[in-house]
Write a structure and sequence with these properties.
Elements lengths: L12 E5 H5 L2 H20 L12 H16 L3 E8 L2 E10 L8 E9 L8 H15 L4 E7 L3 H9 L3 E12 L2 E11 L5
Parallel strand pairs: 4-5
Antiparallel strand pairs: 1-2, 2-3, 3-4, 5-7, 6-7
Helix pairs in contact: 2-3
Amino acid sequence: MKPALTSAATPELAILDARELTSDPEREAGFSGSAHRILADLVGGGAALGWVEPPSRDEVAELLGRVVTAARSGDAGLRAAYLGRRLVGLGYWIRYSRPTHRPHADLEKIAVDAASHGRGTGRALTAALIADAREAGIEVLTLDARGDNSGALHLYRSLGFTEYGRLPDFVAVGEHRYDKVFCMLDFRRRG
């Protein structure tokens, strides 16, 4: 009798928080470089992530260092999505620093490697960040998105965000102009 043929197991998606990420020395060492690759590739392809040109490695490393430091003090949430040992996405929120805005945070970035689009990675990252914000006592989680980013706006709406404002033609990318759309998730209105 011939043995049954088996296929290689597809790795499961793991959504790690900042503590889990930094407690794994191998993942922590490669995180910044892998995050840079994802962000630079997406921005180079025209993604609406806040940069016109792909960010430098140093810029990404500095940004992630600030987020990890803020996460350790409870002022941010960071999530990293891995398929096996490969980073395929990341996202974070940061608490507002002004004393009158401290109960609130801004969902700054959700970035998913182009090869992983359409597989639920962005939804899983965003849902985990929402849960982290709620657990951290955030009252209102805000975000803004470029008006032509219909996929992201649909995702945010499906997770409970509502639009509370729009600045027409506010974002300038070369000769192109896009609306800046402001959304919020108000935890005070949810049980």
